């Protein structure tokens, strides 16, 4: 499956890096040709100079901002063919809204990846319309599986995905930074602190995935009566840790 990206922002670059890791080269079209040249100099991509060149690609991935999608889609309209799968990464724009821009009814997949796809450890959440065939869905899922975990969900849930998987790596990075800062204050080397905290998080996340136990139960297994862990948990609760996380996620999802 030949992939072409429309746009060259952070998420597009993350996807390209992940594909490059598997020896896959994607095409890229950008309105700013100077930035396209810079992108092609830093990543293994095929610059697309004219939208008419999209005809040789199977899948066209829209990686533009919500305020630019209509203008770009109108330019794309006459170049979109029946064989194309149109994949949208545009936050907050439904499949129906995107479909309305085009004269034809394109095969549409709506997708929300996150930046760890660049190291093939991302989460890619997707939904689709009725025009995408089963074979095409399987082929595209196989491609995205090279970038990390893939989940198909009902489209009505897609608007919640930015806070759950899209923006949330930033929250985890903040937690790693905060814990590492405290570790440094105790005399631990900063790089070692980053390594220890991130490795701990990988292990804890793996426990949730592999044991299928409730996170609260796993937390209870670490705490002992009157011990240091429960004192730390109590301090987090007093500081409003759970509510702060919930408020951050709600803020992401506000339109």
Automatic annotation (TrEMBL):
Catalysed conversion reaction: L-proline + NADP(+) = (S)-1-pyrroline-5-carboxylate + NADPH + 2 H(+); L-proline + NAD(+) = (S)-1-pyrroline-5-carboxylate + NADH + 2 H(+)
Main location: cytoplasm
InterPro entries (UniProt xref): 6-PGluconate_DH-like_C_sf (IPR008927), NAD(P)-bd_dom_sf (IPR036291), P5C_Rdtase_cat_N (IPR028939), P5CR-like_CS (IPR053790), P5CR_dimer (IPR029036), Pyrroline-COOH_reductase (IPR000304)
Keyword line: Amino-acid biosynthesis, Cytoplasm, NADP, Oxidoreductase, Proline biosynthesis
UniProt function note: Catalyzes the reduction of 1-pyrroline-5-carboxylate (PCA) to L-proline.
Record pathway: Amino-acid biosynthesis; L-proline biosynthesis; L-proline from L-glutamate 5-semialdehyde: step 1/1
Top-level taxon in the UniProt lineage: Bacteria
GO function terms (MF aspect): pyrroline-5-carboxylate reductase activity
Name of the protein in its database record: Pyrroline-5-carboxylate reductase
Stored Pfam families: F420_oxidored, P5CR_dimer
Organism phylogeny: Bacteria, Bacillati, Bacillota, Bacilli, Bacillales
Keyword Glycoprotein applies: no
Gene3D superfamilies: NAD(P)-binding Rossmann-like Domain, ProC C-terminal domain-like
Family: Belongs to the pyrroline-5-carboxylate reductase family.
Stretches of the chain forming a coiled coil according to its record: none
UniProt-listed NCBIfam families: proC
Record's subcellular location: Cytoplasm
GO BP terms in the entry: L-proline biosynthetic process
EC number: 1.5.1.2
Residues covered by the Pyrroline-5-carboxylate reductase dimerisation domain: 155-255
Domain Pyrroline-5-carboxylate reductase catalytic N-terminal: 2-90
Record-level GO cellular component terms: cytoplasm
Sites where the protein binds NADP(+): 6-11
């Amino acid at each position: 499956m030949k992939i072409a990206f429309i746009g060259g922002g952070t998420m597009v670059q993350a996807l390209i890096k992940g594909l490059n890791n598997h020896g896959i080269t994607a095409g890229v079209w950008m309105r700013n040709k100077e930035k396209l040249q810079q992108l092609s100099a830093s990543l293994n991509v095929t610059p697309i100079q004219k939208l008419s060149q999209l005809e040789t690609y199977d899948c066209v991935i829209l990686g533009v901002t919500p305020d630019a999608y209509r203008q770009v889609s109108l330019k794309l309209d006459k170049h979109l063919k029946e064989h194309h799968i149109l994949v949208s990464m545009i936050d907050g724009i439904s499949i129906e809204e995107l479909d309305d821009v085009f004269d034809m009814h394109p095969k549409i997949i709506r997708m929300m990846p996150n930046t760890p796809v660049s190291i093939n450890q991302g989460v890619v959440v997707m939904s689709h319309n009725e025009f995408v065939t089963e074979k095409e869905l399987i082929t595209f899922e196989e491609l995205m599986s090279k970038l990390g975990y893939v989940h198909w969900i009902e489209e009505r849930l897609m608007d919640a995905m930015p806070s759950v998987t899209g923006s949330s790596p930033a929250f985890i990075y903040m937690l790693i930074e905060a814990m590492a800062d405290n570790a440094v204050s105790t005399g631990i080397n900063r790089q070692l602190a980053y390594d220890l905290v991130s490795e701990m998080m990988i292990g804890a996340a793996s426990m949730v995935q592999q044991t299928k136990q409730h996170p609260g139960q796993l937390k209870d297994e670490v705490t002992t009566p009157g011990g240091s862990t429960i004192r730390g948990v109590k301090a987090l609760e007093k500081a409003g840790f759970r509510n702060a996380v919930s408020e951050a996620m709600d803020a992401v999802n506000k339109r």
